[in-house]
Design a protein that fits this description.
Distance between the termini: 27 Å
Number of domains: 2
Strand content: 15-25%
CATH class of the largest domain: Alpha Beta
Largest sheet: 7 strands, mixed
Length: 334
């Protein structure tokens, strides 16, 4: 009947004396002397070759080149130029995955395929790899996720978190503040809830023709929850990208009830490129197709099964939705 709380936000590690090699390099590369015209030319060519809509790529590339006559051309700060290009690309396309950021790739990132470069960027441990807290009260577990950091760093934390919730009769996963992350971690988390056999959840169709498949990963999970354990995912207007994918991939096969407000609607997968020395461009290059629905959540968001009005207590509504819930018979446990 008591409550047990693990709040990872209360763990502090002082890294103030640590020198980060990439950051030091970035600070000394003259990133306030960016050649904006060269950046526009490079960005236009990358969009022309990699933007996921081939029939729109040339027009968008021409639009980018036309920005050479706008105030963007006068910008010399990497931070200001990146922000202006990000805003302009999103306004032109409506795709929130477009982003230009002031950063220099590490050698490991440069050696990786463009769709995998993000996997080699070490996330900040201060966020506990996105697993911010887990608590169990009266057989209801509540997990709060703010990101889905790559599984090569987050796996031990994910396993510890799920083990802490192992004996719960109801599991609530709050991704209202989760704006993206790792498909492999989504596979891992799905492995706790979708039974002992891998289940195809989605495919990614890349512009270059490559097909990537996302499956639940029961073998990588520490255990499977009994199918009678209720699962509720809480979403909101700040839930984006990988946070949306987790909700969508658990909702579509009928395992999870989604509660909250519609999410932001950012489904596309990205490739990353060194735009020029000091700027990295993220370009939407792949469509996600849910295996169960045949579509994605781009532009519309993940639609909750139970809508919650703004200002209402979404966690309280989620806990109520979990009571009396029974998972469909197509999920089993080992």
């Amino acid at each position: 009947m008591g409550a047990t709380l693990v709040d990872y936000g209360l763990v502090f590690i002082d890294l103030s004396g640590v020198r980060w090699g990439v950051l030091d390099e970035w600070q000394h590369r003259g990133m306030d002397q960016i050649d904006s015209l060269a950046a526009l030319r490079s960005l236009a060519e990358l969009v022309r070759e990699h933007y996921l809509y081939p029939d729109r790529a040339d027009d968008l590339a021409d639009q980018i080149q036309a920005w050479a006559t706008s105030e963007i051309a006068a910008m010399r700060s990497a931070e200001l130029l990146g922000s202006a290009l990000t805003d302009s690309l999103r306004e032109a396309t409506g795709d929130l995955h477009f982003k230009v950021i002031p950063r220099v790739f590490t050698p490991e990132e440069l050696a990786a395929p463009p769709e995998d470069r993000w996997k080699h960027f070490m996330p900040g441990a201060a966020s506990n790899f996105g697993f911010r807290s887990v608590e169990v009260n009266d057989a209801t577990a509540l997990l709060r996720l703010t990101s889905l950091d790559h599984i090569k760093w987050s796996r031990p934390t994910a396993i510890a978190t799920m083990n802490f919730a192992r004996h719960a009769e109801r599991v609530l996963i709050d991704v209202r503040g989760c704006q993206g992350g790792d498909p492999e971690l989504i596979e891992h988390l799905a492995g706790y809830f979708l039974g002992p056999a891998p289940i195809e959840l989605s495919t990614v169709q890349w512009r270059d023709g490559k097909i990537e498949t996302c499956h639940s990963d029961p073998d990588g999970a520490a255990f499977q929850f009994d199918p009678d354990v209720a699962l509720v995912v809480v979403v909101g207007p700040e839930t984006a990208s990988g946070g949306e994918a987790l909700a969508d991939h658990l909702q579509a096969p009928g395992r999870a009830t989604v509660v909250g407000q519609p999410s932001i609607g950012a489904a596309h997968r990205i490739k990353e490129f060194q735009l020029l020395d000091g700027l990295v461009a993220r370009i939407p290059s792949g469509f996600v197709v849910n295996t169960f629905t045949g579509t994605d959540w781009e532009g519309r968001g993940v639609v909750p099964d139970v809508q919650v009005e703004p200002g209402a207590d979404a966690i309280q509504v989620a806990a109520a939705a979990a009571v009396g819930h029974r998972a469909p018979d197509n999920t089993t446990t080992r």
